[in-house]
Amino acid sequence: MKKKFWLLPLLACILMLTGCGKSLNDQSVLKNAKQSNTIVWGVKGDVKLFGLIDVKDGQQKGFDVDMAKHITKHILGPSGKAEFVTTTSQSRIPLLKNGNVDAVIATMSITPERKKIISFSKSYFDAGQSLLVPKNSPIKSTKDLNGKTVIGVVGANSVANIKKVAPKAKVIELQDYAQAMNALKSHQGDALTTDNGILFGLAVQNPGYEVRGGTFTVEPYGVAVNKGQTSFTEAVDKAVLEMQHNGEYNRLIKKWFGDVPGFKYKELYRR
Question: Which SMART domains match (predicted)?
Answer without folding.
Answer: PBPb, PBPe
